[in-house]
Amino acid sequence: MLEVNFRMRWRCECQYDGTNFCGWQSQPNGNTIQDFIEKRLAIIFGKKIRIHGSGRTDAGVHARRQIFHFDGDWFHGPTKLLRAFHSGLPAEIQITAVEEAYTTFHAQYSAKKKRYIYQIYLGYASPFERRYRWSVGERIIDLKKMNNLANCFLGKHDFSAFGALRGDGSKDDPVKNLYQLSFSLKDRNLILETEGSGYLYKMVRTLTATILDVGLGRTNADYVWECFHQRIRREKIVTAPPQGLFLDKVFYSV
Questions:
Q1: Whole-angstrom Cα distance, residue 198 to residue 174?
Q2: Strand 175-186 and strand 93-101: pairing?
Q3: For tag attachment on the chain, is the N or C end more exposed, with fewer CB atoms within 10 Å?
Q4: Domain tally for the chain?
Q5: Buried b (16+ CB within 10 A) or exposed e, 52-78
Q6: At 160, phi and psi to the nearest 5?
Q7: Catalytic residue at 58?
Q8: Which listed residue (58, 71, 172, 187) is catalytic?
Q9: pLDDT digit string (tens) for 13-41?
Q10: Beta-carbon-side half-sphere exposure of residue 67 (alpha carbons within 13 Å)
Q11: Rounded to whole angstroms, how far apart are CA atoms 102 and 252?
Q12: pTM greater than 0.85
């Protein structure tokens, strides 16, 4: 009798509060978003399932719409698969959508661009907000100066000056294309919004903190521009803490 091998691919959307996790990517300690989702899938499917995310978020970073895919034969439809996800995961992780995808779809390699949001509070944020924004104390900023500098980074450039080395020794292509990088201010809430083809390790957090320092008068814009053109990271190129950063959306062609 001929054995038929099915290969079903599932595209999933999830959101998570990254405060108490060691980032997205699987680690030996098992305390990552990927680890918990794979543990749940192993129970659902009765075997080990490997998932592939659109990208890695760092420890403490959050996601509103992270995308991942996996292969697994499930013949009960996406609604029941989503329902199966609704128990067995930490409360900080929620699968929000499941759909069957073409086998050519890849959560990372099919992505066209990503949008990140970074939240800053110009003052002393309440205990209920500090997990989701960077509280910088009472500050007066020059928003126009910050956005003028941010606009200079739009387009396709080498962003080596704003990246960081990963602990696993891997290296990313430093050339990225930024379609948006802008700050907006409402009351004491300062928001960075950026969209790009991709980002280096800690790049969004580094751009955020460095441009903020220019707005605070701590760093000169010419200094930042020089580092950018020389593709060298220097001591005044600093990185914001993780809790204010959200992966907001991943864009695909369809």
A1: 10
A2: unpaired
A3: N
A4: 2
A5: ebbbbbbebbbbebbbbbbebebeeee
A6: -55, -35
A7: yes
A8: 58
A9: 999 999 999 999 999 988 999 999 999 99
A10: 21
A11: 13
A12: yes
